[in-house]
Design a protein that fits this description.
Layout lengths: L2 H9 L8 E4 L4 H16 L4 E7 L6 H15 L2 E6 L9 H17 L5 E3 L4 H13 L4 H4 L5 E4 L2 E4 L7 H10 L16 H16 L3 H29 L6 E3 H5 L3 H15 L6 H9 L9 E5 L2 E6 L2 E5 L11 E3 L5 E3 L2 E3 L2 E3 L12 E5 L5 E4 L3 E4 H7 L4 H4 L3 E5 L2 E7 L4 E5 L4 E3 L2
Parallel strand pairs: 1-2, 1-4, 2-3, 4-6
Antiparallel strand pairs: 5-6, 7-10, 8-9, 9-10, 11-15, 12-13, 14-21, 15-18, 16-17, 18-19, 19-20
């Protein structure tokens, strides 16, 4: 298919009036993509902008920006430059850290509902698949980069993903298009560059269609990954449909691979980081622990707990500092370490104060007793057990005091009053 037809098809995925952004590095691929996009947007009017991320990692970075400005001026395309700081010590490696900074810039500048076009091509896809295979990745990693996906409310498209770089070079030459070459791309100390310069050319000598075949394998893995997602969705529906709360009995009826698949699927649904393989195996091995066991498996970006016959998948838990305490001038929104609560409380007098005493909010410390209508004074610990509040939620609860008496208990994350003393009621702020 002609390149311009590919671009027209990609453009059709953006609603009229919605902006199309092109991630412009200044290299061959993105410079050509922007040129093709500018032609398409003249034929099928759409707002078009370019976004250049200035990583500041090498002396040539200013030259990349200069080229992008010249190209955008010639094409009549508005350019936005995002300068980022790359965290070199976050454990991801330079390439991973730069990618994280780049995507953070995309998120800041591309508005939800808009499209972002990336210029990766078939050779990039082949490198991605090989890197994933060398890491021992499963089907998801071997699927490589998707041609299109929804991301944080934005639409990410790679219109050139099935086109080899040689064809892009020929198209750029026909257009008389200039581009910049990143000097670091010639250095083989980075894994991707080593594959690009030392491995894939040797493969192509023996198997001329190696790039196409690897790209095809990635597409087949993507299809298989989609089918696995459908299977996990069916399993989740069979266990009640709540990705954060899975029945242990239901999990026990699944095979081990399906349990692993379902846990990963649920983490994705919840926006949690996927557990590393060893953490996942440790978690699944503890699902049959005795009922009173405190099972908790944590990893960067998520954790899992077992309680009362269910597996709970959670974001990393934050607890209230033991020394935290605030006073209210009114029983309106309460600011806690978890954020601003929009729920409110009304006391026996119908106002925010009882007599001259102000309300205090503190962490739960144990031993609190609240007077309930028709039940007298009751121990908070037993009340929370009656309400089946999981232990980890109890660690973040806020107790509200009127003088020396506890009068209400709030879960500040869910903004839910769990217990109210006699005469007290929740009210909109």
């Amino acid at each position: 298919m002609p390149l311009q037809a590919l671009i027209d098809d990609a453009l059709a995925q953006t609603a009229p009036g919605r902006c199309v952004w092109v991630a412009l590095s200044g290299g061959l691929d993105s410079s050509l993509l922007l040129s093709l996009a500018a032609d398409a947007c003249r034929r099928h009017p759409r707002p078009l902008r370019a976004l250049h991320v200035h990583h500041g990692l090498q002396a040539a970075a200013d030259d990349f920006e200069g080229h992008c400005r010249e190209l955008c001026e010639r094409l009549g395309v508005a350019l936005r430059v995002a300068r980022v700081e790359v965290d070199r010590v976050n454990g991801q490696g330079l390439e991973g850290a730069a990618r994280e900074a780049r995507y953070a810039a995309f998120l800041r500048h591309v508005t939800a509902g808009e499209s972002l076009w990336l210029a990766q091509h078939r050779d990039d896809q082949a490198e991605t698949l090989m890197l994933a295979a060398l890491r021992g990745s499963g089907v998801r990693g071997l699927a490589g980069m998707p041609a299109a996906r929804d991301w944080q409310g934005r639409r990410l498209l790679r219109p050139l993903l099935d086109i080899p770089r040689a064809r892009l070079e020929a198209a750029a030459a026909r257009r008389g298009l200039a581009w910049t070459e990143d000097p670091s791309n010639a250095e083989c100390d980075q894994d991707r560059n080593y594959l690009r310069h030392a491995v894939l050319p040797r493969l192509a000598e023996r198997w001329p269609q190696a790039g196409r075949s690897l790209s095809r394998s990635a597409a087949l893995c993507a299809e298989a990954d989609g089918l696995l997602a459908e299977l996990a969705g069916l399993d989740l529906a069979g266990l009640g449909g709540d990705p954060g709360r899975l029945s242990l009995d239901g999990l026990s009826r699944l095979s081990a691979p399906r349990r692993r698949l379902l846990v990963r699927h649920c983490c994705e649904r919840l926006g949690l980081a996927l557990p590393p393989a060893r953490r996942l195996e440790s978690l699944l091995a503890q699902l049959g622990a005795r009922v009173d066991a405190e099972v908790r498996v944590a990893w960067d970006g998520g954790e899992a707990r077992v309680w009362r016959g269910h597996l709970y998948l959670l974001a990393p838990m934050q607890v209230l500092p033991s020394t935290w305490e605030v006073e209210w001038d009114e029983c309106g929104p309460l600011v806690t370490p978890f954020g601003r609560s929009t729920t409110a409380l009304v006391g026996p007098g119908g106002g925010s104060e009882t007599g001259e005493q102000r309300l205090r909010a503190t962490p739960r410390r144990g031993g609190e007793r609240l007077r309930l209508a028709g039940r007298g004074r009751r121990d908070l610990k037993r009340l929370l057990q009656e309400l089946e509040v999981p232990p980890w939620r109890r660690e973040r609860l806020v107790v509200v005091w009127s003088g020396a008496a506890p009068v209400a208990v709030l879960d500040p994350v869910d903004e839910q009053w769990l217990v109210l003393s006699e005469g007290w009621r929740a009210s909109p702020p």
